[in-house]
Design goal:
Length: 295
């Protein structure tokens, strides 16, 4: 497939005042990003850019910012609802937040997490729940955490129902108690080989992509080179085919982000300053002024 969004080669200006321009997003010219476009990006060597979104305003901002995919993650439980883990998140919560994200996004591919215990018991139940996320929520693909043969069978069953599936291996937060905390996975030869085999299983089951979370960078690179489907890393180094971050982390709302997070703006500090200024203006009767009231 030709890539009409590839930037033309231009001479690079020099001088202290020059600031390099941000290149256009790889899929920015697409009216709508589809699963096939994500697969093609690996073939083209174009990195996949993914971020989380849990409501319409954030989805609209990320969409305008050129994201390729938006993940309605079960991380919504921790990021938005203040939960300690993702485990209490329900199907109803995921459907509601997916509906909001769909309303805010016009172009991105919308992927929604299957929450804890919505797919682990029985593959047929998983198909029904995946169908609810698509039919009721408006999701265009679902994601599930993959760690055993049952979850691989579940990927295949959901795909057979006509729903695209993204896998997720490595640090799988829904198994946090089994893992003993949020710890890097795949260290050591035996664990590394296990994750490579698991990634192969995810691909063979029919997933169109797989998230690699909390994996040493060299291992993530091996998995990426081994697979034909795109890998999307989070805390897995630069060797993946793409990256995903929680939007609240990259925007600086999080005061103590994980090591792998780069914060591109400090909206936490800016928001606190805005609230303080608003409070001062109200208490000193500076707001509302004549400009901000009706005659």
């Amino acid at each position: 497939m030709s890539d009409p969004s590839a930037p033309e080669t231009q001479p690079v200006p020099s001088g202290p005042s020059y600031e390099p321009k941000v290149p256009p997003a790889p899929a920015a010219t697409l009216k709508k990003v589809r699963v096939r476009h994500i697969r093609e990006m690996k073939q083209l060597g174009r990195p996949v850019v993914m971020a989380t979104a849990y409501d319409a305003p954030m989805a609209a901002l990320a969409d305008e910012g050129g994201m390729d995919m938006l993940l309605v993650g079960d991380s919504v439980g921790m990021v938005v609802h203040g939960m300690d883990t993702t485990l209490p998140v329900t199907m109803e919560m995921m459907i509601l937040h997916t509906q909001a994200v769909v309303r805010g996004s016009k172009r991105c591919l919308i992927v929604t997490d299957l929450p804890f215990m919505s797919y682990q018991v029985d593959p047929l139940e998983a198909v029904r729940n995946a169908g609810r996320l698509v039919k009721e929520g408006g999701a265009e693909a679902v994601k599930l955490e993959s760690h055993n043969a049952l979850t691989l069978e579940t990927i295949a069953r959901i795909r057979e129902a006509g729903i695209p599936v993204m896998g997720h291996i490595g640090l799988v937060p829904q198994s946090i108690h089994m893992l003993g905390g949020y710890r890097v996975q795949g260290r050591g030869d035996e664990e590394g080989e296990r994750l490579i085999m698991l990634a192969e299983g995810v691909e063979k089951a029919g997933a169109f992509s797989v998230v690699l979370e909390g994996i040493p960078a060299p291992l993530a690179k091996r998995i990426t080179d081994h697979l034909h489907i795109p890998t999307v890393g989070i805390g897995a180094g630069a060797g993946c085919d793409g990256q995903v971050l929680v939007s609240h982390d990259l925007l600086g709302y999080t005061t103590h982000p994980p090591k792998f997070v780069k914060q591109y703006v400090d909206l936490h500090a800016a928001s606190v300053r805005a609230f303080r200024k608003y409070g001062r203006d109200v208490r000193e009767r500076l707001f509302p002024d004549a400009e901000h009231q009706y005659d």
